[in-house]
Amino acid sequence: MNAEASAFVHRLFVASALAREAGQIAKRRFLDRSSFTVGFKGPQDYLTEVDGEIERFIATRLHATFADDGFIGEEGEGRVAKAGCPTWVVDPIDGTSNFARGVPHFCISIGAMLERAVEVGVIYDPMVDELFAARRGGGATLNGLPIRASSGADLKSATVEVGWNMRSSADAFLGLLGRVVKTGSAVTRAGSGALALAYVATGRLDGYVENQINAWDCMAGIALAREAGAYVSDYLATDVLKRGAPIVACGPALKESLIAAAAIPGLIP
Questions:
Q1: Do 134 and 113 contact (CB within 8 A), yes or no?
Q2: Domain that includes residue 57, residue range
Q3: pLDDT band at 200 (very low <50, low <70, confident <90, very high)
Q4: Same structural domain, 50 and 68
C-alpha cells in the first residue's frame, strides 16, 4: 500500500469513529424531544441547534487530527485545505426534517474529496446502529461486512427513490417522479439522500435520482455506491461545492434505462 492509500485508510478509520460518536449525540438528543428547538432556514428546510452542535464537534475533531485538511459543512463550518490535502464534506444530520419530526430515519454523513475524486465516505445511522464505510479502491462495507449494489436489470421490478428539495421547482420534481413511475418502478422517498445512496450500495434500493442535491448530502454516499459496484453519474464534473448538481445512482445493469427514464436536464453521465 502506497503512502497516499495509507493516509486515506487512516482517515477512514477516524471518520468511522467520529461518525459513531456524533451519532450517539444525535440519538441522545433525538430521544429527548425537549432538548432542542426546531426552526427553518427556508420552506421545508428544517434546522435544529443539534445540527450545528454536531457539525462543530466533527470539524473540531478533524482539525485536531488533520490540521491541513479542508472542511465544508452544511451549517457553515469551513476551512480551506492546504495544497495537496483533501477536503472533508460533512452533513451533521442528513434527514433533519425526519429528526425534527420524530421520524427515526437520519444519519451522520462524512466524506473526503481530493480534487475530483471522493476518497472516503462514511454514513452512520444511529437509530439502527448501521455504519456504512468506503475508501476509493478499498471497497464498501456495512458494519464491517462487504456490500454490493443490486444486479437487477429491469426497472419494472426495481425500487427507485426520487429525491426532492425546494431548490428545484415542483414541476421539475413532478416531471421526474412521473417519468420514473412510468417505467413501472416502485417509487419511494424517505427524506435522506445520504441514506438513499447507502441503500443503493447495499442493494436495498435499485436506484436513486434527484434533480439537484447538495454536496454534503451525497459526497459520502457517492463513495459508498461506487465502491459497492453501483453506477453513479459524474457529480463532481462541475462546481458542486457551491451549487450542487443532479444525480443518478443505481445498480450497474440499470444505468442506461434509468438515465433515459430520469431525463434530468444538466445530468453528466
A1: no
A2: 3-146
A3: very high
A4: yes
